[in-house]
Amino acid sequence: MGLLARRTSLPVKVGDVIVGGTAPIVVQSMTNTDTADVARTADQVEALAAAGSELVRITVDREDAARAVPFIRERLDARGVNVPLVGDFHYIGHKLLSQHPACAEALAKYRINPGNVGFREKRDRQFSTMIEVALKHQRPVRIGVNWGSLDQDLAVRLMDENRLQATPKSAQEVTQEALVVSALQSAARAEELGMAADQIILSCKVSDVQSLIAVYANLASRCSYALHLGLTEAGMGSKGIVASTAAMAILLQQGIGDTIRVSLTPAPDGDRTEEVIVAQQILQTMGLRSFVPLVTACPGCGRTTSTVFQRLAEEIQVHIRRQMPVWSRQYEGVEAMTVAVMGCIVNGPGESKHANIGISLPGTGEEPAAPVFIDGEKTITLRGTGLAEEFKRLVEDYVRTHYPPRPAAEPSRDTAAA
């Protein structure tokens, strides 16, 4: 069974990026710097954008952060970094947006959490204030519901109603329904205040894989708003990568999702751009978008006791990522190229033939020769200690001779480097 048809959603313009409609699924990320630190935040936004994040969200949690936002935007513009900035607001967003119009203007979108925008009688007034600011500055909003900060009045009401049913649902099912209802009711209220449906993106984030799948399947069936996918806290390392992939791959396979974020917890002093690369790899391995040539490498076994193929695979992958910003500006279609670096004769030649360009290195006890296959045909056999440099030159030659030059004026957002 292949990919199901993409769910029809309304396109939302965020800066120069379109989320939803027929636009490619957008990759986004979020800084973890103190937004009040203009230099560090601008640097991290630039790094995330360079890695391929097409939207970058920043925390706006207090006066100092709100005052810093326009200066962050100025620094980025001066460097030629035009990635749209999304402001993440909780609790006092209505005050910060109202009292800092330069902040409101510098942001391309506002994220509003209906679970903590205000409580009881203040909720509607403060939510309305944020929507009014968005309308004044002609900015779209993401209404982002989290199960960790769900509107408790709504949750309690639905729980009470559920207890009166002949066949009550589980508490988990009621919580899932409360997430969806909170998002939809908030979106309806935003429209009552004058916001168009194509200015609204919805999200209902949880940190449990099965709950995320159930919630988004429900939400997608009940509206045509653009949807932002992601676990609210995926976790660290392989756990976070696996959880995000398991949840989002199923939804994307069902045609659900217009923009994704992989919320990885970085190691101390870890590279924040990892979450961007993982998001791109999810989309690319599912055949939904292409960002950077994929390198296929065998996992190794007793036939590959040498680490030559492992080192070469890593070196080639790093080389491709470094070259991609140049290639994407110069050539059309290079992001879809496939490269194979294999370790022995068992699957090496076959896998290499399936790639645009591949090399099959000798396994333990095999002749010290490495045949190279280009578009399925064996073209040359490499020997000696300079395999890596020779193969990189062949990859460069392949790019130069197989992909047409890109017109200088054409934008390349969909082939952003990873």
UniProtKB/TrEMBL annotation:
<feature type="binding site">
    <location>
        <position position="298"/>
    </location>
    <ligand>
        <name>[4Fe-4S] cluster</name>
    </ligand>
</feature>
<keyword id="KW-0414">Isoprene biosynthesis</keyword>
<dbReference type="GO" id="GO:0046429">
    <property type="term" value="F:4-hydroxy-3-methylbut-2-en-1-yl diphosphate synthase activity (ferredoxin)"/>
</dbReference>
<keyword id="KW-0479">Metal-binding</keyword>
<comment type="function">
    <text>Converts 2C-methyl-D-erythritol 2,4-cyclodiphosphate (ME-2,4cPP) into 1-hydroxy-2-methyl-2-(E)-butenyl 4-diphosphate.</text>
</comment>
<keyword id="KW-0408">Iron</keyword>
<dbReference type="GO" id="GO:0005506">
    <property type="term" value="F:iron ion binding"/>
</dbReference>
<comment type="pathway">
    <text>Isoprenoid biosynthesis; isopentenyl diphosphate biosynthesis via DXP pathway; isopentenyl diphosphate from 1-deoxy-D-xylulose 5-phosphate: step 5/6.</text>
</comment>
<dbReference type="InterPro" id="IPR016425">
    <property type="entry name" value="IspG_bac"/>
</dbReference>
<feature type="binding site">
    <location>
        <position position="344"/>
    </location>
    <ligand>
        <name>[4Fe-4S] cluster</name>
    </ligand>
</feature>
<keyword id="KW-0560">Oxidoreductase</keyword>
<comment type="similarity">
    <text>Belongs to the IspG family.</text>
</comment>
<dbReference type="GO" id="GO:0141197">
    <property type="term" value="F:4-hydroxy-3-methylbut-2-enyl-diphosphate synthase activity (flavodoxin)"/>
</dbReference>
<feature type="binding site">
    <location>
        <position position="301"/>
    </location>
    <ligand>
        <name>[4Fe-4S] cluster</name>
    </ligand>
</feature>
<keyword id="KW-0004">4Fe-4S</keyword>
<dbReference type="InterPro" id="IPR004588">
    <property type="entry name" value="IspG_bac-typ"/>
</dbReference>
<dbReference type="GO" id="GO:0051539">
    <property type="term" value="F:4 iron, 4 sulfur cluster binding"/>
</dbReference>
<dbReference type="InterPro" id="IPR058579">
    <property type="entry name" value="IspG_C"/>
</dbReference>
<keyword id="KW-0411">Iron-sulfur</keyword>
<dbReference type="InterPro" id="IPR011005">
    <property type="entry name" value="Dihydropteroate_synth-like_sf"/>
</dbReference>
<dbReference type="Pfam" id="PF26540">
    <property type="entry name" value="GcpE_C"/>
</dbReference>
<protein>
    <recommendedName>
        <fullName>4-hydroxy-3-methylbut-2-en-1-yl diphosphate synthase (flavodoxin)</fullName>
        <ecNumber>1.17.7.3</ecNumber>
    </recommendedName>
</protein>
<feature type="domain" description="IspG C-terminal">
    <location>
        <begin position="295"/>
        <end position="396"/>
    </location>
</feature>
<dbReference type="InterPro" id="IPR045854">
    <property type="entry name" value="NO2/SO3_Rdtase_4Fe4S_sf"/>
</dbReference>
<dbReference type="GO" id="GO:0016114">
    <property type="term" value="P:terpenoid biosynthetic process"/>
</dbReference>
<dbReference type="InterPro" id="IPR058578">
    <property type="entry name" value="IspG_TIM"/>
</dbReference>
<feature type="binding site">
    <location>
        <position position="351"/>
    </location>
    <ligand>
        <name>[4Fe-4S] cluster</name>
    </ligand>
</feature>
<feature type="domain" description="IspG TIM-barrel">
    <location>
        <begin position="11"/>
        <end position="279"/>
    </location>
</feature>
<dbReference type="Pfam" id="PF04551">
    <property type="entry name" value="GcpE"/>
</dbReference>
<dbReference type="GO" id="GO:0019288">
    <property type="term" value="P:isopentenyl diphosphate biosynthetic process, methylerythritol 4-phosphate pathway"/>
</dbReference>
